[in-house]
Please model this.
Amino acid sequence: MTIAQAVHDRADAFVRSPHKLLIGGRWIEAAAGETFATVDPATEKVLAEVGRGRAEDVDRAVRAARAAFADGSPWRRMTPSARGRLLWRIGDLLEEHVDELAMLETLDNGKPYTIALGDVRGAADLFRYMAGWPTKIEGATVPISSLAMPGEYLAYTQREPVGVVGQIIPWNYPLLMASWKLAPALACGCTVVLKPAEQTPLTALRLGQLLQEAGLPDGVVNIVTGFGDTGAALTAHADVDKVAFTGSTEVGKKIVEAAAGNLKRLTLELGGKSPIVVHADADLENAAVHAAGAIFYNQGQSCTAGSLLYVHRSVFDDVVGRVAEEAARLKVAPGTDPGADLGPLVSHEQFAKVLGYVDSGRAQGAEVVVGGHRVGDRGFFVEPTVLTNTTPGMSVVREEIFGPVVCAMPFDSLEEIVASANDTRFGLAAGVFTRDLSKAHRTARLLRAGTVWINTTYHVFDAAMPFGGYKESGWGREMGSQVLDNYLETKSVVTAL
Ligand code: NAP
Ligand code: MG
Model:
């Protein structure tokens, strides 16, 4: 594959344009006039300056979202069918601009262009899936048999949008996470203030332009770029009805505290430390290829990354050897290189953190089978890394590394492996490899995780499939019909007949 010059040119044109905040349908500078730099992690050079919103900007954005939500506003008057058409149109626009958006993502985040293309297509899919929902959000009639208040009644429920929603997203799948958040909120009729991650603000801003092009009324989606204090202002704001967050478990816990002020509704998509279990009877080549993909895809910067590889002792050397071969084969290069399998990590902070984990593993007795070093001397590139001799107490085993580092450990029995795989504060995802159908489903049943992939790659996501975590991996589910509950209130209405 080659990437056409026209694609670079379109992305460059957007990069070079001014990057302001979207509030009430207008692109405006931050109130204090501040900006911050977003960096190309492949070159370490500043890519663009972006408006730095603060609490005052968040407040303006919340007021715009509240006004757009007011009874009689264009958004509230829009029929469900028209809302569905609009969502479909957004999906079409994402697809029409797939190359440009993917290149922007590659420049800002570092990820390989081929992966970024997949992200944009996933985003388009989700808007289209959600386009089908506005016409199907229904209440019910409810039979009443109250003894305390006997009488003849007509009772029904209706589902109403929860109101003004604050959405805070991370840098690992910037456009995709913006879409996971926005599409269901809009399907339900909410209005939104979106806060992209400071490392990767560009695709959300471009999406803001496309939302306007699609005909979304002013103020329905507001975008305030900035840092953690911007997100904090949003979570603390008394006129925000709900916050949806994806990011670290640590910040997730701060948001729980901040939300207590007005008891805003909260959904949280947090970290993970996800196991892969390879039984002795698995197709070992298939298992090894997918185990490698589970951790190295997107440089390991996935909340679901398969960072713990448990392999039956009888096939441990074989499988780990194959994963290591795959790690050595993968090409680490700038995301704009069409042959890149892994790009750079998103930031110097993540780069230092990931290499720090590898060092701590080494110091505690882990063996580095392959990888473990920086690639080159410019850009935040890290080799795909396989560690063995790791033990349950090590920080590389317990904590989310969020980089291309997997800890491989042998096991002897199903009971033992289920106990080890569940011995984590997280519960986001898991993978199972075996040719034995009942063992596969039995393992899936015993693992405390929100998604289990059997004999297939990690990262099979679908707009129709709920996604979310057990335990400290979060609250609530995204995608599928279940996500609608995040953005709806239920009202019961009772009439005496
Ligand atoms: P993070 O701090 O949780 O950032 C996620 C989002 O929350 C960003 O938009 C961030 O803003 C915002 N934020 C930060 N502090 C906030 C606060 N007090 N109140 C409200 N919003 C706040 O994640 P990170 O620091 O970028 O990454 C750290 C670790 O988080 C990673 O190493 C990884 O382990 C984990 N992580 C997990 C996921 C996931 O998908 N589950 C995604 C990303 C990171 P700014 O970035 O602009 O400051
Ligand atoms: Mg950047």
The pocket of magnesium ion (ligand 2) is lined by residues 38-39, 47, 108, 199-200 (CB under 6 Å). The chain has two domains: 5-270, 275-462. The longest helix spans residues 113-131.
